[in-house]
Design goal:
The protein has 251 residues and is mainly beta. It is built from two helices and 16 strands. The chain is globular and about 65 Å long.
Length: 251
Amino acid sequence: TPDSILDFISRIGVSKSNSLVDIRLLESCIREELDEKATRRICVPRPVKVVIDNYPEDKTEYFSLPNNPKNPEAGTREVPFTKELYIDADDFAEVPPPKFFRMKPEGEVRLMGAYIVKCNEIIKNEDGSVKEIHCTADLETRNGNPIDGRKIKGTIHWLSAAYCEEATLMLYDNLFTIENTGDIPEDKTYNDYLNPNSLIKIEHCKVEPSLIEAKAGDKFQFVRDGYYCKDSKYENTFNRVVGLKDSFPKK
């Protein structure tokens, strides 16, 4: 964005000698601006179906989620909740590692802004992959804590299977595996240092329906993921601007 580039320039200053600036500083400038300005939306890059067994088949209710927690004037939106949902594959582990506070067998987790659910059964495809996860919801925890006072550490995002659209994500990363291309030896070329993961394309992601109506260049924070903008050439495609994680010291 223009403002983040100007912020970056003001931080690095001007020097008469050649110098190298860590790209993380530029990413930090972008992240700080979009944290304040970007609209929040839900995207499930690698969807896994979740069925809430004790939830009525024909019921739809709505939960209010903030458009931007940093800007109360941005208001809220209503996100539909139904019996069948999608969560991201990274938020489930059949054999969880230590301190895994997302969805796991016999474990409880909060669906962001909605109910606490417990994973009861895993149904698999013939190839061993997870087909769907069956859960029960504590229906007394709508936007609230359990009555018995038990603590739920994990929160994951979700989308209704009946109220979502498909989109493609383009995950851009550094083009080269070497920090300074000026350091490439004489017997090597740029091709020897190309990053094979400089672009990862993820198709069939699930997104909130409103994202399909976004205009080219519109920017969003996909919650718990990163900042994205709508592509100008390809339909229903979003390009990652920068991830959420920031490893650069704050100003």
